[in-house]
Design brief:
Elements: H1 4-15, E1 19-23, H2 32-35, H3 41-52, E2 58-61, H4 63-67, H5 71-83, E3 91-96, H6 100-113, E4 118-121, H7 131-134, E5 141-147, H8 154-157, H9 166-173, E6 182-187, H10 192-201, E7 207-209, H11 219-225, E8 234-237, H12 239-242, H13 250-268
Parallel strand pairs: 1-2, 1-8, 3-4, 4-5, 5-6, 6-7, 7-8
Length: 271
């Protein structure tokens, strides 16, 4: 059985890609003709996957975009996960952050019933949110929120450049946590100087890097500081790709946007 990093590296090499596409179905962005169907989510996702599966290293559905559709959205998420080719890693962006046996239950359900390869975890409660999620799951991974890409991140996460605050504490103290699976980190490209510090504090961790699309993050920094010793970073874009053009052939537009973004990433990579 491949470890998470081995599966990620294989997908990155096969598709020559560090690009991850976020699968975030938004009823305010889908075309009106799609909304007439009882289930517009799964056909939309399947079209995006069909158009981009040879261009990505991972897919990242965000749980919130499925919960807003109620039970139908959860069914669509389950079927979307099943539709993604098995050689492509699936990261469920759920930002779960419970403790002990409850967090272990989250992990068992998501890793095995839902068959995702990695999840995002909020570490506010400490190691109890991370260690139970990876216990006995050596082939799985969690991405710990370290420095998120949103404008108000510094309110509680602090000044990572000064190595003070919550982000610095998460990156520093979590290095001591012993886990069976891989500990990666979410580090936003909208804070490029802090991305460098994150890499210094977590030299062996894989990075999930949001913010390079609609949020206008620093792609050069993501490419420079993202790679670890095993694999490249998972550089995520959602809105800028899946909603590139909703007027005509949205799947073809998504493919063109994914091609362009992958090319931009690869142009920054060392030869």
């Amino acid at each position: 059985m491949l470890s998470y990093l081995q599966k990620l590296k294989a997908a990155q090499e096969k598709n020559n890609s560090w690009l991850c596409v976020g699968l975030d179905p938004d009823p305010n962005r889908l075309r009106v003709d799609a909304l007439k169907w009882d289930d517009p989510v799964l056909p939309f996702n399947k079209a995006i996957i069909d158009a981009t599966a040879d261009l990505v290293c991972a897919y990242k559905p965000n749980l919130g975009f499925y919960l807003q559709w109620g039970a139908a959205g959860i069914i669509a998420l389950e079927r979307t996960i099943a539709y993604i080719p098995r050689e492509i890693p699936i990261i469920l962006d759920c930002k779960t952050g419970d403790i002990g046996h409850t967090q272990a239950a989250w992990a068992r359900g998501l890793f095995y019933e839902w068959a995702v390869d990695a999840i995002t975890v909020n570490p506010f409660v400490g190691s109890d949110a991370v260690i139970p999620a990876l216990k006995d799951h050596p082939d799985k991974a969690v991405y710990i929120l370290a420095r998120t890409s949103n404008p108000s991140a510094a309110d509680f996460q602090g000044d990572l450049q000064a190595r003070t605050g919550l982000s610095a504490a998460v990156l520093t103290r979590s290095q001591q946590w012993q886990t069976d699976g891989h500990k990666g980190y979410v580090a936003g490209a909208t804070y490029p100087a802090e991305l460098q510090i994150a890499r210094e504090l977590a030299p062996e961790a894989n990075f999930l890097i949001p913010g390079i699309g609609a949020q206008g993050g620093d792609l050069a920094a993501a490419v420079r500081y993202g790679p670890d010793a095993v694999a490249g970073p998972v550089i995520s874009a959602s809105r800028s790709i899946i909603y590139a053009n909703m007027q005509g052939d949205f799947a073809a537009a998504a493919r063109e946007a994914a091609l362009a973004t992958r090319a931009q990433i690869n142009a920054q990579r060392p030869g």
